[in-house]
Design a protein that fits this description.
Helix content: 55-70%
Radius of gyration: 24 Å
Low-confidence stretches: 6-13
Largest sheet: 3 strands, antiparallel
Number of strands: 6
């Protein structure tokens, strides 16, 4: 009896979406929340790379939504292939969302927000690694709309440590940039006491 309850509880706690009808609703719900076309690769990454959905369920769901007119594939103004939410998909998102557990809806929206934040960060900050004879260089470039705000080159003894530095910077690139600026602005001339005691 206790074993059955534990099994049922673990199934309820599972965050992987395992049925296509629920996934159909969730994809429409996510697209309605985003409120703009979504790049086909981005939707795939949000659902598959985060581990929220099995690849085969994803393919079945996308096939169903396309075939039944909930979404369509077209190119956006940048020429990228995107999914567009159609009126039938909007109705699905609005009227059927209660059939998809709130925890799934929340996890999916959170995964999408994190994914888009990471994409934005990667567009604003670029980290490159270059092997050297006795180590590795890390080049960090912070971009603005028209200019590079910072172009910094650091040295690390090996690629492993270079990647560690790059990963730490990418955890909070704005914070890294801010600390560099704070350090520069608080830097003072060193004064030496030349008097003999």
């Amino acid at each position: 009896m206790q074993k059955d309850r534990t099994t049922k509880m673990s199934e309820l706690a599972d965050t992987v979406i395992k049925d296509v009808p629920t996934l159909n609703i969730l994809i429409c719900y996510l697209m309605k929340k985003i409120n703009k076309p979504i790049n086909t690769e981005h939707l795939y990454d949000i659902l598959i790379a985060t581990g929220l959905v099995n690849y085969f369920y994803y393919q079945d769901s996308i096939g169903f939504l396309l075939e039944n007119g909930h979404i369509k594939v077209d190119t956006d103004e940048n020429g990228e292939e995107c999914y567009f939410l159609m009126p039938k998909g909007e109705i699905c998102a609005r009227e059927l969302k209660k059939y998809a557990p709130k925890s799934y809806r929340d996890n999916l929206v959170l995964a999408a927000l994190k994914y888009f934040a990471r994409l934005k960060m990667e567009q604003e900050v670029n980290v490159e690694y270059t092997e050297a004879d006795n180590g590795c260089y890390i080049r960090i470039t912070c971009h603005d709309l028209k200019n590079d705000l910072m172009d910094l080159k650091l040295f690390a003894p090996d690629m492993r440590q270079a990647k560690l530095i790059g990963d730490k910077i990418m955890l909070n690139p704005a914070g890294f940039y801010s600390k560099i600026i704070d350090l520069v602005l608080s830097n003072e001339e060193v004064t030496y006491d030349l008097t003999d005691n």
